[in-house]
Amino acid sequence: MSERFTVRAGWGALLLLLLTLGCAERRVPASVRSRTLWVMGTEASVVLPGSDADRLANAADRVETVFQETESRLSRFRDTSELTAINRQAGLSPVSVSPETLHTLNLALTYARLTGGAFDPTVAPLVALWQAASTAGVPSPATVARCLSLIGYTKVQSDPVAKSVFLSHEGMQLDLGGIAKGTAVDRAAAALLAAGHDRFLIDLGGDIRCQGAPDGQPAWRVGVRDPFDKRQLLGVVRMAPSSAIVTSGNYERFIVVDGQRYGHLIDPRSGYPVRGMAGVTVMADEAGVADAMSTALFVLGMDQATALLARHPGIEAMLIPDRKPLEIWVTPGLKPRFEPSAEYQAAVRLLPI
Ligand code: FAD
Ligand code: MG
After folding, report:
1. Rounded Cα–Cα distance for residues 205 and 198 (Å)
2. Is 108 within 8 Å of 292 (Cβ atoms)?
3. How many A from CA of 337 to the centre of ligand 1?
4. Helix (H) / strand (E) containing 204
């Protein structure tokens, strides 16, 4: 996150609170209130229309409780989390887990299957291998191949009756970092709806879910940054009334080895960092789905991503290939919701699906 709260004038006659978060930018009119939280190593925000401070405090407390629960269960940075227990017992024994952990894992396995393993929650050993490359150098093909033997979502046993999870090979590691922010946002949205909040926006480090719309506005508006120049806004997405939006990019987290830039997203099928895409933004009903799909479409690249989107009409996406001049490919369902900034209008293309 490069910028925090900056108050700017603009966007019609409104004074705006411009919040720069992850890869997406939100322009929030002054007629809303927002509260910022710090969880899961990132910044989160809860935004509500109107000026009722108590109502916002109530909503933010509920969201924070959900996020803290998720972090205590699913963080790979915590020794006491269920995820760490699963990883510790890899190849040894199944571990009993909470319904939340089982739900997030099962969603991850579902999207691993749907994407032919482009999204894979067992990719962690490869992520670690490539993270180490910045000091250890690029791994040899033999090292990558050895690491690949530990990867594979089909080696995860999720038992719905015993409510347990088992990684069948020693050395396997589960990392739900590509989906758990999304499922946490979905749980937080469910908690707000259950408490009677019917208009809100929740942002967890760029995983955004919204409900309803701000006062006097037809929709929440979420900005998407240019992956090649994150100071620039590609445009704004007018969100559907109950929907989520998530972006995956290579420009925020990457390593440089021997002058070559490697992104943090790994193709679990080849064992190598992904090339070919600069940014993928996905809009779906649920943030967990949008999170997994944005990672998967990024891994798949333009052609396979387009084919996958053609088979899943409920998923809207914006694909930006890693080439110049910049092209912004959008699904037919996203096109009417996307307002490109003036300088990007000519770059917009319709995906052939
Ligand atoms: P996404 O594109 O959504 O996901 C990328 C992440 O998924 C990568 O970082 C990698 O780990 C994994 N991945 C890579 N390739 C694939 C693939 N092909 N399929 C599936 N997954 C892949 N960060 C901190 O710095 N400190 C913390 O204490 C911390 N705690 C966290 C606790 C929880 C419960 C969660 C969910 C996240 C936490 N994080 C923390 C953030 C986490 O480490 C990741 O940085 C983050 O989840 C990645 O999200 P993203 O939106 O940047 O990228
Ligand atoms: Mg993701």
Report:
1. 22
2. yes
3. 28
4. strand 200-204
Q: What is the pLDDT of residues 226-280, one digit of tens each?
A: 999 888 999 999 999 999 999 998 776 677 777 888 788 999 999 999 989 999 9
CA distance 170 to 188: 34
> Does the beta carbon of 123 sit less than 6 angstroms from any atom of ligand 1?
yes
Reported as a pLDDT band with limits 50, 70 and 90, residue 290 is very high
Please state, in angstroms and rounded to a whole number, the distance separating the CA atoms of residues 40 and 77: 9
Instruction: Please indicate whether residue 233, judged by its CB atom, sits closer than 6 Å to ligand 1.
Output: no
For residue 97, CA distances in Å to 66, 70, 155 come to 17, 12, 18
Question: Residue 47 corresponds to which amino acid?
Answer: V
Q: Average pLDDT, stretch 128-157?
A: 94
Separation of 12 CA from ligand 1 center, angstroms? 36
**If you take atom 47 of ligand 1, which residue's CA is the nearest one?**
177
3-class secondary-structure state, position 229: strand
Bridge partners, residue 280, by sequence: 248, 319
Per-residue pLDDT of 81-135, as tens digits, reads 999 999 999 999 999 999 999 999 999 999 999 999 999 999 999 999 998 988 8
